[in-house]
C-alpha cells in the first residue's frame, strides 16, 4: 500500500517535473536569449535560455534545447566577461542515460571543470522527445569562489550544445554561439517582491568602482568625442552654410567664399571626431554590434542601448556621406544644383537630429556613464534649448531678409547691422555650446569606474 502510494507520488513528481520553455513572457517577467541567429522561439531554436531574479536573492534560469545526442548530451549557457570562450561560468542542462539534471561548471580555457556547490540547485529537469529542459536556481551575490561568478551583472552570454564524454560536457564537437552582453539581473522581483526592470546600462557594466578599465576609458572617449563633434562642431558648420553665405562677400580663401571655408573645415573636424568615436566604441565592445540584430530577443532589440546604437550609426553614416555627395555635386550654375542643395541640407540636418536623439537616450538612460546623470540631463536639455532658439532666431532673420530683398527696400547700412547681429548670435551659440558640451564631457570623464 505504502509502496503504491509512494510510486504514485513519484509518478506525479516526474510528470510535474516535465516542463517546456514558454517564450510568451519573455521581455516582461523574464529575459530570454535564443540560438542560433535568427531562430524563431518554439519553432526552430536549438537553445532557449531565460533569466529572472526572484526576491532579489536568486536567479531562476530555464535552459532548454536539443543536443545532437539526447541520451548523452548537454545544453549549456556560459557567462563571460569577454566575448570568447575561456574563463567562463557555466550553467548546463545535462542528460545521461535517462537521467537529466542541472550542472554547474567553469571553463578555465578549452576544458571544463565541474563545480559542486550549493550556489546552484536544480528545480526541474526533464528530457522529452530529445528535448532537454532544466529550471535552475543560482544564488546571487558574492559566491566566495572566483570560478562561480555572481550573475547579478552584465555578461556576454555564450551558448553551446554537444555530446557528453564520461558524463561531462565536451568542449570539442559542439555547436557554439556568442550572444550580446546582457544584464542578467535585469528582470524579476527585488527583495520586497516588487517587479524590477533595471534601466539598461547600455552595456556599461553598471557596477561602480574607483578605477576605469580600458573598456571604460574607450567608452568615455567615445562619449566626449561624440558630444563635442555634434554639439559644437557639426551644428556650427550647419549654421555657417545656412545663414552666413552673404557674409564677407568679397573675401575668398583657397578659391572659395569664407562661409564655405568655415562650413567645410568645421564639419571636417566634426566628422573626423565622429569616425574616431565610432571606432572607439566598436573596440570597447570587442567589435560586436550592440544595436538591433536578428538573433536577439525583442526585449534586447528594444533596449535603449540598442536604439542608441542604431540612431548613432545612421547619424554617423549620413554625416560621412555628406562630404562625398558634396564632391559629386553639379556646378553652381546647373539647374540640378538646388536639388543637390536640398538633399544635402535635408540629410545634414536629419543626421544632426538623430545624433541629438541618441545623445538624449544616453543622458536619460545610461546612468552609469555620468558622475551625475541628472546634471548631464539638465545640461543637455539646456543645450538643445540653446540650439533650438539659435536656429529659430536665425531663421526669422532669414525670412525677414528674404522679404526685404524681394521688395528691394533694404539698404547697405541696415544689411551690415543685420549681419553683425547674425554673427553675434552665432558667437553666443558657440560660447554656450562649448560651455555646456564641455560640462557634459567632464561628467562623462568622472563617471564611476567599473573596477572595484
Ligand atoms: C544586485 O545588483 C543590484 C544593483 O545592481 C543591487 O542593488 C543588489 O543588491 C544586488 N543583489 C545581490 C543579491 O547582490
Automatic annotation (TrEMBL):
<feature type="transmembrane region" description="Helical">
    <location>
        <begin position="265"/>
        <end position="287"/>
    </location>
</feature>
<keyword id="KW-0813">Transport</keyword>
<feature type="transmembrane region" description="Helical">
    <location>
        <begin position="220"/>
        <end position="244"/>
    </location>
</feature>
<keyword id="KW-0249">Electron transport</keyword>
<dbReference type="InterPro" id="IPR006593">
    <property type="entry name" value="Cyt_b561/ferric_Rdtase_TM"/>
</dbReference>
<keyword id="KW-0732">Signal</keyword>
<feature type="transmembrane region" description="Helical">
    <location>
        <begin position="423"/>
        <end position="446"/>
    </location>
</feature>
<protein>
    <submittedName>
        <fullName>Ferric-chelate reductase 1</fullName>
    </submittedName>
</protein>
<dbReference type="InterPro" id="IPR005018">
    <property type="entry name" value="DOMON_domain"/>
</dbReference>
<feature type="domain" description="DOMON">
    <location>
        <begin position="43"/>
        <end position="162"/>
    </location>
</feature>
<dbReference type="Pfam" id="PF03351">
    <property type="entry name" value="DOMON"/>
</dbReference>
<keyword id="KW-0472">Membrane</keyword>
<feature type="transmembrane region" description="Helical">
    <location>
        <begin position="307"/>
        <end position="328"/>
    </location>
</feature>
<keyword id="KW-1133">Transmembrane helix</keyword>
<dbReference type="GO" id="GO:0016020">
    <property type="term" value="C:membrane"/>
</dbReference>
<feature type="transmembrane region" description="Helical">
    <location>
        <begin position="349"/>
        <end position="368"/>
    </location>
</feature>
<feature type="domain" description="Cytochrome b561">
    <location>
        <begin position="181"/>
        <end position="403"/>
    </location>
</feature>
<keyword id="KW-0812">Transmembrane</keyword>
<dbReference type="Pfam" id="PF03188">
    <property type="entry name" value="Cytochrom_B561"/>
</dbReference>
<feature type="signal peptide">
    <location>
        <begin position="1"/>
        <end position="17"/>
    </location>
</feature>
<feature type="transmembrane region" description="Helical">
    <location>
        <begin position="380"/>
        <end position="403"/>
    </location>
</feature>
Amino acid at each position: 500500500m505504502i509502496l503504491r502510494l509512494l510510486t504514485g507520488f513519484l509518478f506525479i513528481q516526474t510528470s510535474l517535473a516535465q516542463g517546456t520553455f514558454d517564450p510568451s513572457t519573455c521581455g516582461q517577467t523574464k529575459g530570454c536569449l535564443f540560438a542560433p541567429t535568427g531562430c524563431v522561439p518554439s519553432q526552430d531554436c536549438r537553445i532557449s535560455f531565460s533569466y529572472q531574479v526572484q526576491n532579489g536573492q536568486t536567479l531562476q534560469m530555464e535552459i532548454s534545447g536539443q543536443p545532437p545526442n539526447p541520451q548523452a548530451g548537454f545544453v549549456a549557457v556560459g557567462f563571460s566577461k569577454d566575448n570568447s570562450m575561456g574563463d567562463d561560468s557555466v550553467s548546463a542542462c545535462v542528460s545521461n542515460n535517462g537521467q537529466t539534471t542541472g550542472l554547474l561548471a567553469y571553463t578555465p580555457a578549452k576544458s571544463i571543470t565541474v563545480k559542486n556547490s550549493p550556489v546552484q540547485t536544480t528545480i526541474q529537469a526533464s528530457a522529452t522527445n530529445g528535448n532537454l529542459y532544466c529550471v535552475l536556481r543560482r544564488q546571487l551575490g558574492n559566491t566566495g569562489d572566483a570560478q562561480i561568478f555572481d550573475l547579478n551583472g552584465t555578461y556576454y552570454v555564450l551558448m553551446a550544445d554537444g555530446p557528453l564524454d564520461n558524463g561531462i560536457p565536451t568542449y570539442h564537437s559542439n555547436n557554439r554561439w556568442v550572444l550580446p552582453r546582457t544584464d542578467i539581473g535585469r528582470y524579476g522581483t527585488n527583495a520586497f517582491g516588487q517587479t524590477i526592470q533595471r534601466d539598461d546600462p547600455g552595456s556599461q557594466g553598471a557596477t561602480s568602482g574607483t578605477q576605469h578599465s580600458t573598456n571604460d576609458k574607450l567608452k568615455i572617449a567615445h562619449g566626449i568625442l561624440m558630444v563635442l563633434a555634434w554639439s559644437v562642431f557639426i551644428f556650427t558648420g550647419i549654421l555657417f552654410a545656412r545663414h552666413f553665405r552673404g557674409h564677407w562677400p568679397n573675401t575668398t580663401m583657397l578659391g572659395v567664399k569664407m562661409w564655405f571655408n568655415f562650413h567645410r573645415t568645421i564639419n571636417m573636424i566634426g566628422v573626423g571626431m565622429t569616425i574616431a568615436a565610432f571606432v572607439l566604441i566598436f573596440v570597447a565592445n570587442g567589435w560586436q554590434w550592440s544595436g538591433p540584430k536578428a538573433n536577439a530577443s525583442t526585449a534586447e532589440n528594444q533596449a535603449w542601448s540598442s536604439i542608441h546604437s542604431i540612431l548613432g550609426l545612421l547619424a554617423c553614416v549620413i554625416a560621412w556621406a555628406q562630404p562625398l555627395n558634396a564632391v559629386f555635386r553639379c556646378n553652381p550654375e546647373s539647374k540640378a544644383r538646388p536639388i543637390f542643395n536640398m538633399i544635402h541640407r535635408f540629410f545634414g540636418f536629419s543626421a544632426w537630429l538623430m545624433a541629438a536623439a541618441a545623445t538624449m537616450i544616453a543622458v536619460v538612460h545610461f546612468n552609469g556613464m555620468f558622475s551625475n546623470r541628472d546634471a548631464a540631463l539638465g545640461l543637455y536639455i539646456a543645450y538643445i534649448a540653446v540650439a533650438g532658439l539659435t536656429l529659430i532666431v536665425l531663421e526669422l532673420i532669414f525670412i525677414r531678409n528674404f522679404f526685404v530683398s524681394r521688395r528691394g527696400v533694404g539698404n547697405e547700412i541696415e544689411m551690415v547691422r543685420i549681419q553683425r547681429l547674425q554673427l553675434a548670435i552665432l558667437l553666443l551659440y558657440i560660447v554656450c555650446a562649448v560651455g555646456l558640451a564641455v560640462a557634459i564631457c567632464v561628467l562623462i570623464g568622472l563617471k564611476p569606474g567599473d573596477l572595484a
